[in-house]
Fold these 2 entries.
Entry 1:
Amino acid sequence: MLGYATKRLLLAIPTLFLVALIVFFLVRLIPGDPAQVMLGEGASQQAIAALHAQLGLDKPVPVQFVSWLGRALTGDLGTSSITGQPVGALILSRFQVTAIVVLVSIALATLIAIIAGMIAAWRQHSQIDLAVLGAASFILAIPSFWLGLLLLLLFGVTLHWLPVVGYVPFSESPSAAILFLILPITTLTISETGVLTRMMRSSAIDVLRLDYVTHARAKGLPERTVLARHVFPNAFAPTMTLVGLTLGRCFGGIAVIETVFTLPGLGRLMVDSVLARDYPVVQGCLLFVAALYVLVNLVVDLLYPLFDPRVGLS
Amino acid sequence: MTEPLLEIRGLRIVADASGTVLLRELDLTLGRGERLAIVGESGSGKTMATRAIPGLLAAGVHRDVGSIRFDGRELTGLSGGDLRRIRGAGIGMVFQEPMTSLNPALSIGRQLAEGLKLHRGLSDEEIERRSIDMLRRVRIADPEGCLKRFPHEFSGGMRQRIMLASVLMLEPKLLIADEPTTALDTLSQREVLELMVALTRETGTALLLITHDLGLVAQYTDRVLVLEKGVMVEEGRTAEVLARPQHPYTARLIGSLPRPDGTRSAVSKDDNVVLSIKAAVIEYQGARGLLRSSLAKRVIDGVDLMVREGEIVALVGASGSGKTTLGRAALGLQPLASGTVRFEGDDIATMSRSRRSAFRRDAQLVFQDPFSSLAPHLRIGEIVGAALRHIPKMTAAERRARVAEVLGEVGLPGYEARRPHQMSGGQRQRVAIARAIASEPRLVVADEPVSALDLTIQHQVIELLRRLQRERGFACLFITHDLAVVEQVADRVVVLEQGRVIEEGQTAAVFAAPRRDYTRELLAASPALAINELASA
Amino acid sequence: MRARIHLVLGFGLVGLLVSVILVSFVWLPYDPLAIDLDHTLAPPSLMHWFGTDEFGRDVASRAMLGARISSFIALQTVVITIVAGTLFGLIAGFLRGWTERLVMTVSDALLAFPGILLALALIAVIGQSRHSIVIALGIAYLPSVIRVVRAATLSIREREFIEASRASGDGALYTMWRHVLPNVLPPVLILATSLFGWVVLSESALSFLGVGVPAPIPTWGNMLSSARPYMASASWLSIAPGLCIVATLLGINMLGDALRDRLDPREAN
């Protein structure tokens, strides 16, 4: 088991390296002088020259990459060309909101998916199965930002139950923050339940066909034990992988939700900096989210053997 | 007159959607401690009949009418709770597929403990003690360690024994075994069945054995019931039914058993050597790990093999013996680490392009799996004519004519336009044979060509192969694990164990007086041979 | 039973989409870009079926044009991605060795960037336009296609009829073309329909964020974006474009499901 864990950890390193490489070169692809590109149109000659020196732009490219990577690993991701703020701190502060929304939503969505998916598979072809499948398929066709708009329209504008704009950081006032977070979390939860439920249902159907399930029933085990002890662990494993991928996808795609509900999150930061051509921030966000994604999938890989022991041994 | 343990009257099973009758009015009685076999080919309804007993029919079928009395109680119409109490404690079931019969996510210990905890409510220590004891009785080494391990760490034969242990631990009165050894190799088969019979005899458990293998029936059961397409056609004491079958279907089944054929003429030693393998070594590269590379494993370790013109040589061995790999090597599809393969005198590793092209035409392969060896997206005509494309100067019209001729020979005239998925397993295998002989090869390697087929179909296909070989005179390397087929078909037999040839010679001689223990064991373990002895007695 | 509903509804909705697009080539109720400051924010009526937006532009016409634009972007992206992905996936899965390692390393590196993040970054570099969306989304989805095709190729490769083909003397290229490709097509086709849906969704999301199709060219995504300030006063602006997206995606998903039911490799023997 330890061999598997170290193997996975070691495999993550080259991936992270390639990610850093791509992020570094992405900005260099923009035609023109990198320093000018980074500082924007109105930058002064001195500022450009200073950045030149700071980034070592006269040195060969591999050296630049190594020093950039070195700085990034210590947390120095440069400064915003618009606001001058250190990118690292900016990212971390924005990440709080994003993290809360994404983690809570995906946790809820996974729970719903497990229950709905297993019940639908257990009673395949019945009315409940058709209802679950129909609902999941319908959800897949609804863009999350439109769902958010509709919910906002209903609960915020029409019913005035919940606030429409604004945000209060969780650290300042949890109760107020929750009010602002209910709708975004509800939106993302509903959106992601669709694909997770379908996956759970499909793998549960596959498992229910297998001999060991019939064998468990043949031993006289009550149905609920059969489902919980024999079906669930084996059906959940592939869904867990999907949960990891979904988490990663949401860290990027959350931008739309943050836009709809005007939350000061990481996604919105990324979009704003793309529009404003604030390249240091774009780079920093990319690096941060991609690294996070690799980490999340690594954790999923390490948890996988708990549900499928066949994977634990290399 | 004691009441029988199991009494089924008029059981009818019907498909939900179409209403088709899948099992028609089955009557069956089983006394305490008795051993009854239910025999039938695919589609006979044998599995469904037994699943109906503890009420475990699959979705999509249901019991229409009929009564099932077990141990004095009527099972149909019992409440869910009552039925569950009988399952496991009264009726135990063992399944066919060892790879999917144990839950991969739970340790062996937990799976063994489940049943006892549910039905007897014993303490954990007591359960562990009994589990270890039972594992020892099914001859699992290191039973204590086994409890903590997971199913994927054990081989197929071991898993079947573990499942047997978990079922028999509950001391059921009836054990239903659904093709429990079909997926195992010959030696494991014998081990598991012997165990099953011995243990059920000890505890007085009745055994309901479902199988398609008449050899097993002959060796291990008291009575037999024959099913054909959902209808019971014959029933009685095993020895009686096998020696003097009343129903034509039963007679056909018994007649389809591979039998030694006295009509084969001896092949003279001077005949041309078509295939010559010398000192072959084939290595399997272990998966290259991140930090180290595994040692290469020798799948074939110094093998000499020869097949002459007009001869059928059987290559026999258990799974893992390397026989399939050697067969591929004979055709140049598997490279040798060292040694040579010569086809008609030429080393295939150093052949010129044109010679190699001719070699590809003159040496053909018949695969085992009729469902995956035919390209699903092509028509039969194109599949059969595949090798003909490489014959220089053969026109399209000539190709078509040859394909038609060959299809006629295998009994499928006019099938050129059909597609594989429209045909049965036996028909597909005949197409595979047609494909192999279309280019008029000098060597045909047949890799377990009938293992995946029903007994009656098997018989047809083997007869076809033999006839074609007699008429066309090609050399044949026949790879199989079924010794009865070897006796029927082969002039010489080569026995392979773990990549080495441990015995070889004329078939009759080897079978009558095997020199090596392994060969002796293989022969003893082959159930079909036992029937032949019974029948010829 | 289920397959038939899916087929009917799927064809129906997609048919509706296609008809709207075809009609939009020859006739639109109004000029989608025409500004009419006398009739801004008008609710739906017989004159303007979906009402008008803040510039007095007819929403229905803009929605129809949006349908055409989004569909074309999706079509271009799907074609490029499927063709390139199938090519790379095939050679990676069939030839294995260093070819496979090279393709998969690059592919996995791209996959390390979640969802539309990569597309965002690429747009940051290339600039914002309709073409840059195609390129950005194409590159973002390419690894997924390569993955699926490679997996399908690997499993087909092990089937005995491939071995039979080689045993007959067929070359690698011939085998790939004549035997592997036709059997890889069914999962690729299913993937293509799913991909179409994903691209429509991604493009609308990017346009909603303001980094997609630039104004004033209408696409459902950016129409929803500009509707936000008027949520309270002109709610129809927020509803109509969304309904279009949902209808389109429902149709495509259902068609994809019906296709999957037909092409499922687990054919009954």
Note: Chain C touches chain B at residues 159-161, 163-170, 179, 182-183, 267, 269 (CB under 8 Å).
Entry 2:
Amino acid sequence: MAGTAVRGRLNWLLAEAVELVAETPRVRTIVFDVPAWEGHRPGQHVDIRLTAEDGYQAQRSYSIAAPEDGVRVVITVELVDGGEVSPYLIEELRVGDSIELRGPIGGYFVWEPGDGESVQLIGGGSGIAPLMAMVRARVAARSSEPMRLLYSARSLEDVIYGEELESLNAVDGIDVAYTLTRSQPPGWEGLSRRVDRAMLEAVACPPTAGPACYVCGPTGFVETAASALVEQGHPAARIRTERFGPTGGP
Amino acid sequence: MTSDTHLDGNALGGLFYELFGREMTHQQGCCDNCGTVSAFGSLIVCRGPGDVLRCPACGEVIIVVVSTPVRQQVNFVALRWLNIEGFEADAPIGD
Amino acid sequence: MSFVTRGFRGRRRVDVPPDRVPPGQYVTADFPVLSASPTPVVSADEWRFTVTGRDGADRSWTWKEFEALPSEKVTVDIHCVTKWSKLDTVWEGVSVDVLLAEMDTTSGFARIYSYGGYTTNLPAQDITGGKAWVAYSYEDRPLEPVHGGPARLLVPHLYFWKSAKWVQGIVLDDVDRPGFWESYGYHNYGDPWQEQRYAGD
């Protein structure tokens, strides 16, 4: 997959928060207006930089959760207990505030509609964010790639973009399956364990379909899911991964 | 499982863009320990005081980046080669 | 100076007397996790700690033997080169003086080896005389793997990268061989009170 064209320097840009959405009790989506934004590809991320009055700086990366849309850059942030940046973004940041942001970054964990190939997406916890950009891009492009999403979350309350994902099951060629690993609602008939090979055999694209696979979420989740894909028979070269580190997952 | 603290090359995408002047996560490099070719985005990244990039196949150190207030020290510990795609080469030097 | 972010304060900070804090550091209540390798998995059965003298003679302990050694509970301040410090941290472990009791440490250097491949180096005099421990307990609980468990070196008077996690052994030598971070741009000695962070400082 080709990388982005050279865009010159990766400058820090001022981004104004224009909309805040409480996705779950611990997850917020932030829509930024970035006047100098030149667009981005599904799967890419931005680096965010916060500066305190004494000059102390903290920097984090967040996946862009929606496809290109003029100067709008959408991120979805999960609250990390004892964290430094996520409590600010979720509990302090208000509409009208500005933060510094640079990007888009990424040429490996990217997908764009149009090549007709099958796609298998596997997301754990907040790892659903970049995959959601891919899903939304497919819908917006009205393209025809068979796309399957397997989304692992702790419980139904932790599922992000729940209503939107449910509506997508009605879209031709898109299938969404959930596995709720810690608690399930009464009468739950879906999956309820960690991703493993047997689960993939049941709900994921078969290797014979030759899908491009994208796995995102906490590090342990990504490595377990990627191993399961390999066990199922997908070539390692067809599996792209993005690890979020130790927190924020099932 | 959730105690795994390492990341992957995607996390250093911004840093490498700054160092090389272009998007690097899809560019391929060869591990000098085992010969495996990997995209930068798929390298294992351990964040210490500096950033350590390791081969996803053999686990050995390929690159270490140390950022000081006055310089970036890029230690090419075991990078046999790096392919940078996406631009035209200069004309050959000759007579 | 960059754009200041309204309302951002950064890590939870603790106010302390300035003479407790080396230059350029701030005190935090957090315990950030930094490492050069993924967390190695070492079972109690396979764990060994080995010290090797300048003459090549060595001495090893299994986990059971190590736990039977005389241990101390110490309260120390720790300082990370990435600028955070933690004061009054409580550890329990075996003094390195006990481990090197039969060896000549009056001069020379020590190379520290860890599971997972990490190394660091320091003068032999900097891990003796009550200055260093191999610690297996933090805040009265077994040391967690992400913080270096089963056991890590604890050398609080130097930047914390010298306190090698997942420590496996000490080799004494006449020659000083730079360890991991020392080879890649960090200071060879690392005294926080002289702000010796990077090579050339």
Note: The domain at 119-243 of chain A is CATH 3.40.50.80 (Rossmann fold).
